[in-house]
């Protein structure tokens, strides 16, 4: 498997791995009769998993958009917007890295993973529109990977919560004072 | 380019193209858009070497680009690129402008149709104890789409009076962006290849062959 299908399968595998982390399960296994506290139940685990996956989907979006940018650079080195989109994508990559580091420290915070996904996916879609435009009429058939990646980046919108869901998470965490910029 | 509305479209109002996009879909609309172009015109008019046509217009011996979603939508993508070494005699000009304007009208009808279907979808789905159609973010997206469609209809009319490639590309770019907003209203089901919203994605591919794409609002 390659491309989006492989990436999606890898995401699912990672999600299962998070659920099955031996460190997380150890106290439970040592004393199986002792139930987890209510606030550490299934919903808590699911939310933590979603936070991780959102960052990973954001990373997939940035990676696909970088590939689109490289495709344009190879096909049309003088394309307008190459530098602009390169800088935008570098910023998005930095955001994803920062959020991933933050998530390691605070795995229960929803704000930053949602911010990463809500920023990276629309940017990747914008980059796909730019690439399609600067490569001219018929570009989606002249460059089959351009057409594939243009559709791929839109799939990220529907993975682990749509943009509207991320908006709600961001706003709710802001209202709870869980934003530290 | 001259006045497309009066000179080329003639007695056929742009509204007719929107209606057929709404009622009969993309392939039927494309049939109407390309009705007065013969096969030689198709190749000469497509600005990028590929021409999206209704499937029934594919002749034996034509080179067709395989695309499952386009095929499912009744659309074929012809490869009409010239062999390397030959000099292009293409002069898209007026004809490409006419195709671009008519196709935009069909796409507006298609967008409007899919918006109705999205509303039906959201009305039937429950989230948080109420139909998703009552969620403010969804209502906002529907309202934005309707307002954008009203503007696009006028944009199409004004562009048709003094057509320019820039404005036609911009109209299609705005429709493509709007179509993505409509597609999202269906949730992940709107991404499926066998979902009606497929028509919006294929319409974008069709526009890519006849018009190209814009780079932003």
Question: How does this model look, in words?
Answer:
The complex is a heterodimer of chains A (181) and B (217). In chain A, 76% of the residues lie in helices and 0% in strands. Chain A is built from 8 helices and no strands. Chain A has a single domain, classed as Butyryl-CoA Dehydrogenase, subunit A, domain 3. In chain A, helix 3 (42-75) packs parallel to helix 5 and helix 5 packs antiparallel against helix 8 (163-175). Chain A has 181 residues and is mainly alpha-helical. In chain A, 36% of the residues are buried. Chain A has helices at 3-19, 22-30, 42-75, 82-105, 111-134, 139-142, 144-155, 163-175. With 217 residues, chain B is mainly α. The radius of gyration of chain B is 18 Å and the shape is globular. Chain A binds chain B through residues 80-81, 125-126, 129-130, 132-134, 136-142, 147, 151, 154-155, 157-158, 162-164, 167-168, and chain B through 46-50, 65, 67, 77, 79, 135, 137-138, 173, 176-177, 180, 183-184, 187-188, 190-191, 201, 205, 208-216.
What distance separates the N and C termini of chain B?
Answer: 23 Å
Provide the β-strand percentage band of chain A. under 5%
Q: Runs of chain A with pLDDT <50, length 5+?
A: 16-29
The overall number of domains of chain B is: 1
For the residues shown, what is the average pLDDT of chain B?
Answer: 88
User: How helix-rich are the residues of chain A, as a percent range?
Assistant: over 70%
What characteristic shape of chain B results from the CA principal axes?
A: globular
Structural class assignment of chain B: mainly alpha
In the CATH hierarchy, the third-tier topology of chain A is known as Butyryl-CoA Dehydrogenase, subunit A, domain 3
CATH architecture of chain A, by name, is Up-down Bundle
In DSSP terms (H or I, runs of 4 or more residues), the helix count of chain B works out at 9
Please indicate the percent range of residues of chain B in DSSP E strands (runs of 2 or more).
5-15%
The oligomerization state is heterodimer
Radius of gyration of chain B: 18 Å
Instruction: Give the SSE order of chain B as H and E letters.
Output: HHHHEEHEHEEHHH
Class from helix and strand fractions of chain A = mainly alpha
- In which range does the helix fraction of chain B lie? 55-70%
**Average pLDDT over all residues of chain A:** 84
Please mark out the parts of chain B with pLDDT under 50 across 5 or more consecutive residues, or reply none: 1-11
- Would you identify the CATH architecture of chain B? Up-down Bundle
């Amino acid at each position: 498997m390659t491309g989006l299908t492989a990436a999606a399968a890898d995401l699912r595998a990672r999600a299962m791995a998070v659920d099955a982390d031996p460190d997380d399960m150890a106290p439970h296994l040592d004393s199986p009769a002792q139930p987890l506290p209510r606030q550490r139940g299934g919903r808590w685990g699911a939310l933590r998993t979603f936070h991780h996956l959102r960052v990973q989907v954001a990373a997939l979006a940035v990676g696909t958009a970088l590939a689109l940018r490289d495709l344009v650079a190879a096909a049309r080195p003088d394309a307008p917007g190459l530098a602009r989109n390169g800088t935008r994508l570098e910023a998005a990559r930095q955001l994803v890295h920062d959020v991933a580091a933050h998530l390691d420290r605070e795995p229960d915070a929803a704000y930053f993973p949602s911010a990463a996904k809500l920023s990276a996916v629309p940017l990747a879609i914008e980059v796909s529109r730019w690439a399609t435009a600067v490569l001219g009429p018929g570009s989606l058939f002249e460059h089959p990977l351009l057409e594939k990646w243009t559709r791929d980046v839109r799939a990220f919108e529907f993975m682990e919560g749509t943009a509207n869901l991320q908006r709600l998470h961001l706003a709710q965490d802001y209202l709870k004072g869980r934003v530290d910029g | 380019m001259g006045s497309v509305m009066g000179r080329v479209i003639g007695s056929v109002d742009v509204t007719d193209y929107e209606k057929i996009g709404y009622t009969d879909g993309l392939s039927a609309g494309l049939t109407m858009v390309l009705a007065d172009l013969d096969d030689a015109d198709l190749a000469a008019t497509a600005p990028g070497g590929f021409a999206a046509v209704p499937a029934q217009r594919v002749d034996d011996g034509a080179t067709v680009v395989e695309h499952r979603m386009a095929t499912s939508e009744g659309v074929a993508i012809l490869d009409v690129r010239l062999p390397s070494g030959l000099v292009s005699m293409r002069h898209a000009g007026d004809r490409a402008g006419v195709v671009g304007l008519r196709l935009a009208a069909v796409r507006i009808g298609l967008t409007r149709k899919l918006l109705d279907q999205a509303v039906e979808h959201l009305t039937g789905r429950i989230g948080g104890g109420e139909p998703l159609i009552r969620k403010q973010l969804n209502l906002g997206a529907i309202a934005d789409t309707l307002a954008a469609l009203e503007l696009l209809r006028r944009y199409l009319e004004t562009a048709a009076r003094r057509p320019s490639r820039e404005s036609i590309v911009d109209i299609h770019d705005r429709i493509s962006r709007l179509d993505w907003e409509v597609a999202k209203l269906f949730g992940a089901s709107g991404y499926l290849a066998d979902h009606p919203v497929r028509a919006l994605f294929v319409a974008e591919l069709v526009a890519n062959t006849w018009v190209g794409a814009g780079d932003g609002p």
